[in-house]
């Protein structure tokens, strides 16, 4: 599904503050895999995710999604495959827009945004039914601005928004970092369920080693812009939670 | 009474600027001051076409297109050359001064023996009331178009662009293109104000746009005060409040003049008035904390 070949990314090349964020990564992620990436700050996790999303264009190397070379493709064009959940709940939703309007945009992620009114009674009903599956009671608030909700509620809705339109790849960049433990749990469970139900290929970045242990089919440790460890499903099941902590020891 | 009717008429003429600033400032979160230039441009284009006796159905589209080009230029400078929006607006506004001057060939162009939008139709006998009805129809049509636009999928994407850029890019929208289109729409609206005022006052003048951006800002800020007080989320009500803001703004100016304030101090009064509306809610808000 995702192929990363010999990718390097250097920021501020030739300047005193030069950063070699990604130093030659080769990675193949198959369809339906749920990859968890762990690593200390500055290890290049987020840059790698941004390289897949298109927010960052590699210095050298190629990125392809579903057999298409997307190395030079802008992020807004990659939305035909990719949905994202950001670390900051404010980044994934528009605060001043109603929940309904946010969902409308998500529902046409892969389509052009035309000059017709798409928010009709039929659409409202569809959104209400989708939101009701979260069990948060938010289906009664769809006319409210997104900004009136809590961070956890917004992250859960962002997850739901990603499957409003056809989605193959889900990128989760520390989606629970800004949340309290209970909300974080709800968001992670929702993500896991959606990934399984919709057979999504997913990449999750997290600092929470418990989540890294509990979720996903494959685990990758990064450091200094390279892949240090790559544990596939077979090995991951025999992995102990303490082994993970030892990696950072 | 006539005094206040004139204020009302002017307020309606300025509704284009108010809606334009509402789009650039509130929807796109871009401080756009191309306004001074695109407003004059609208007036200049109107005066040139009318003095050359061009039919009305050509004048308005020409005004809209010229305003849109000015706005799009600011948008392109801002997004493609990554120049601060304020500076991009100043650059285009400054350049437009020369453009306007060379279009007119002189600093003032009166409309003599021409048919204006206000003399085209005679709905009622009183000329001022006639002007009022024509303006009202014009403003209602413009508001309906903008309101509809903001309700469409494209409009939702526009509103999200100024709100959460990372989100809207992840949802497949080219934000650069969206901003360019948004600034084009905003300045096209501004140009229609130049179009109306030029016909209303009977001339276009090179200095008619100086400081006009404050009229739009003031209108939007008045509207925003109401929007915040009453927690309004409806697009339609917001647009109506912006129009009301434009009229209220002119009424306040008319009131200041009528109580005998020196006309030379009008811009100072305007600035203080806008400052008051901006600061009053914040001052009282702080006390309640």
Plain-language structure description:
The complex is a heterodimer of chains A (249) and B (289). Chain A has 249 residues and is of the alpha/beta class. Chain A is 35% helix and 24% strand. Chain A has ten helices and ten strands. Chain A has a six-stranded mixed sheet with strand order 6-7-8-3-9-10, sandwiched between helices. Chain A has a four-stranded antiparallel sheet with strand order 2-1-4-5, covered by helices on one side. In chain A, helix 6 runs parallel beside helix 7 (181-197). The longest helix of chain A is centred in the last third of the chain and has 17 residues, at 181-197. With 289 residues, chain B is an all-alpha fold. Chain B has a single domain (2-288), classed as ABC transporter involved in vitamin B12 uptake, BtuC (Orthogonal Bundle), CATH 1.10.3470. In chain B, helix 3 runs parallel beside helix 5 (85-104) and helix 3 (35-51) crosses helix 10 (175-201). Chain B is globular. The model of chain B has no long low-confidence stretch (mean pLDDT 92). Classes of the chains: A alpha/beta (249), B mainly alpha (289). Chain A binds chain B through residues 53, 55, 74-77, 79-80, 82-84, 86, 90-98, 101-102, 104-106, 108-111, 113-119, 143-145, and chain B through 148-149, 151-154, 156-157, 159-160, 163-164, 166-175, 233.
Q: Name the helix and strand elements of chain B from N-terminus to C-terminus, one letter apiece.
A: HHHHHEHHHHHEHHH
CATH architecture of chain A, by name, is 3-Layer(aba) Sandwich
Q: How is the main sheet of chain B built?
A: 2 strands, antiparallel
Strand order of the largest sheet of chain B: 1-2
Q: Which of globular, elongated, flat, extended, rod-shaped describes the shape of chain B? A: globular
Would you tell me the overall average pLDDT of chain B?
92
Rounded Rg of chain A: 18 Å
Profile the largest sheet of chain A: 6 strands, mixed
Mean pLDDT of chain A: 92
- By CATH, the topology of chain B is ABC transporter involved in vitamin B12 uptake, BtuC
The CATH H-level homologous superfamily of chain A? P-loop containing nucleotide triphosphate hydrolases
